[in-house]
Amino acid sequence: MSARLAYQYVVVRCVPRVDREEFLNVGVVLYCQAADYLQGAWEVDRDRLAALDPGIDCDQVCEGLAFIEGVCAGDARGAAAAGVPLGQRFGFLKAPRSTVLQPGPVHGGLTSDPARQLDHLLSTLVR
């Protein structure tokens, strides 16, 4: 049996109109300190998002999600936030904010394969 590693994750929500408190899950960020793993995955259903707010700019939402992906990857898409250690990056990404893209509550679990767990969470919570 493989070692089970503790991980934390947040679901990224798109909240097109904060005043209505409606949201659509569009991504997941998973952090596993023991595996030195921080990764985000996302998928935007443009039709469902437009049903919440016909005026939403889906391309801008995708740009925001690419920024989150860049922070996780530590590349130029994540700007200055991409240059800090993984734990701090996850802290930045899980911090509450009142923008169109918001992290949900932090959840945790155990896995032997963080990448596979991220795929499972994306399939279960976003698709």
Structural class: alpha+beta
Question: Mind describing the biggest β-sheet?
Answer: 5 strands, antiparallel
Low-confidence stretches: none
Q: What is the number of helices?
A: 4
**What is the number of strand segments?**
5
Name the shape in a single word.
globular
Organism: Nocardioides panaciterrulae
Protein name: DUF3037 domain-containing protein
Pfam family, one: DUF3037
Structure description:
Helices cover 35% and strands 26% of the residues. It has one domain. The chain is an alpha+beta fold and 127 residues long. It has 4 helices and 5 strands, in the order E-E-E-H-H-H-E-E-H. This is DUF3037 domain-containing protein. InterPro entries: DUF3037. It comes from Nocardioides panaciterrulae.
Question: Summed up, what is this model?
Answer:
This protein has 127 residues and is α+β, with helices and mostly antiparallel strands.
Topology of helices and strands:
Layout: E1 5-14, E2 24-32, E3 37-42, H1 46-52, H2 58-73, H3 86-94, E4 101-103, E5 107-111, H4 114-125
Antiparallel strand pairs: 1-2, 1-4, 1-5, 2-3
